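In response to reviewer comment 3 from the previous cycle, which asked for concrete evidence that the modeling workflow produces usable outputs, we include below a single protein chain processed end to end. The sequence was submitted unchanged, and the resulting C-alpha cells are shown without manual editing.
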Amino acid sequence: MEFQYDLSQIAQDQIIKIDNTLLPVGYQKEDPELQMIISKILDKMGEASGIAQELKSPITSAEKLMRSDHILYLMTEQTSPGHFVVVGLLKMGWKKLYLFNKKGSRTEAMVYCLLDFYIHETRQRHGYGIKLMDYMLKDNQIQASQLAVDQPTNKLLQFLWKYFNLSKLVNQGNNFVIFEEFFETSSDKESGSDRSSGYKSQPTFGRHGAARQQDCMANILYGAKPSETQNGNSNGNVDRVEYQQRDNKQHKEEHHVEVQHHVVDEGDGHKSNQSNHTQPKLDLKNFHTQL
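The workflow returned the following C-alpha cells.
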C-alpha cells in the first residue's frame, strides 16, 4: 500500500518493530510528526486487514495499539530510490488464556498470541508473509506451534499448514485457535501440572466402595483370615475367634469328663463287655464341628 510519506528515516530495515509509543522500538527521541505518520499508516493498514478478513470493524488501529502492550511488525519495501511502500503488518501480544488440550484438560497460561496478520493483496504469494513471520519468531525466540491465533481465516490456516505443518486444531472455549503441538512444547506439560486425566476412575464410595460380607463357614469355624482384617472386618472376626475358642474349650472339657466316665465303667465286671460294644455318645451341641 502506497503512502505519500517519507519513510526513509525508519525504513532502513525492511521490517519495523513498533510499540505503543507509535515509534520504532529503540527510537531515541520524541518525534510527533513521525508518530502522526505511523498512526495514519496503522489506521489504513488495519482497515484493509479488517476488510480482507470480513470483520465488522478493524482490530488494528493506532489508538488500540497505544492502549495496549502489543507489538506491531510493519513490513516495507523500497520500490525506487527514496520511495517506500507498506507491504504488510503483524500484530502480536501476550494474553492469559484458559486452554483445553485434546483430552479436555484445562490449563491457564500466558500465551504469545497472533492478533492480526495481513499482507497487501498486491504482494501476496510472493514470500512476504513467511519472511515477516520468520522475523517475528526469531525476534521472540519462539516456535509457531507455541502461538495462539485469534480468529484465523482459512488463508491463515493454510499458511500455517504449508510452512509450519500445523493442521491439528484443538477446539477452545474462546476465539483463539491452538494446535496439538502447543502442548508438546509448553512449560505446563514439562512441569507435569496437567490437572485432569481425561477419564474418570472407578468410584470408591457407595456400593462400589462397600466391603464384601465374609460369611463363609470356614471363617465362622476357624476364625478370620488376614485378608479380612485388611478389608475392615477385624471386629467381627475377633468376636468369631473368641466364640470359637470358648466353644472348643467347652467341648474338650465335656470330652474329658466322658472319657473318665468310660474308664470307671471298665472297672465294673458286669459293665465292661457292654461298654466295649457301645458307640460313643454323640454331642449334638457340637455336631456342626464334626461335619
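The mean pLDDT is 74. We consider this sufficient to address the reviewer's concern, and the full set will be provided in the supplementary archive.
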